[in-house]
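Supplementary notes for students who missed Thursday's class. We covered one full example, reproduced here. Read the sequence, then the structure, then the short commentary at the end.
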Amino acid sequence: MNKNFIKSLGPGLLWAGAAVGVSHLVQSTRAGANFGFYLVGILIFVNAIKYPFFEFAPRYAAATGNNLISGYNKIGKWAIALYAFFTFATMFTIQAAVTIVTAGLIKNILNTELDVTTISLLLLLGTMAILIIGKFSVLDKLMKFIILALTLSLIIAVISAFSHGFNPNPEFATVFNWGTATHIAFLIAFVGWMPAPIDVSVWHSYWSVEKQKDTGYRPKLKEALLDFKIGYIGTAFLALGFLSLGALLMYGTGEQLSPKGGVFAGQVISLFTKSIGSWSYPIIAIAALATMFSTTLTCLDAYSKVLKPTTEYLTPGLKGKNNSWLVWFWLIIVVTGALLLIYVFASSMATMVDIATTLSFITAPVLAFLNYKAVTAKHINYKYKPKKLLKIYAIIGIIFLSAFSIGFLIWKFFLN
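Structure (token representation):
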């Protein structure tokens, strides 16, 4: 592993930090607890089908030294306007979902009397302060330790859980039914954020450019892609780990995961302590909280940063001016919108999560198409463009994602 690769390592782990949150701690655990190992094939398929569209982010950043928003702008104003619309339509629910899960963990671990809404307010104000005071390098270094701690904890917990065997009680074991509306609705929510919303590809391209500025080194394509693959493949294994914990320790027991953030957080931590032992509680609690806090932090950082150039491209009058105030403007907007949603859905974390993940599921094919157009554009050097096989892979992915989204909308509004 050469020094240049060490310099470029980081954006992939930040991507993992944004991905390993609600989709893993919440949705993957729920998948295992509700349906055992039935959805493992779906999990692997979704990670495979979305791969190219996330990979295009570090590829574009390595090729141009710019983020994907610049790529959308080169496609045409319609592309960046579409991205802005989808971002605005989903950002409040996504930020609220990750925040309310983090707040639930804090409430459970600290055993505080404060309600989830108040904790969410304090949490978002705290993350704002960190982003105002801190720099990219702090976030970059912090993520490496957080992901490592969670990965080690999960590996130990899953190995221990498997040693006890898989013995669900048939009386309580639910079989996934493709004709049941609630099961399909959960599946859509599960797929929506597995391994992450495709929006995160834009964030990844932004972090890649920030890393280049921070180190003064522009990585080669192989280095950028290796950094990404470490994060991507790692998150897929973590998702399988959380699903396995839910299946091995909750499926067929009659115990249900609570829709309330604080209760749910306690249940997830207890899955680890049941498997490893009560002595592990402090380690697991810190790892889980650090993971969700990092997700809350990276989401808030990303939205405020990517909306700045988006606003500048869509508002010609801002071109060439010092618009650093736009970051703080969007930071306040995102926090305010997220808090309003949390106030409405505070008693039902599961509803909040399902709304956010379903919205991401619907918008996925459009963002996938924009990423494909950006990385195959004329101005991209042929050395950085995806090869023919990867292009075919991506086109198949777009077709599948489009079919799934259209099929879901038809089912939701005409058949259900």
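Commentary. The chain has 16 helices and no strands. The domain at 3-415 is CATH 1.20.1740.10 (Amino acid/polyamine transporter I). If anything here is unclear, bring it to office hours.
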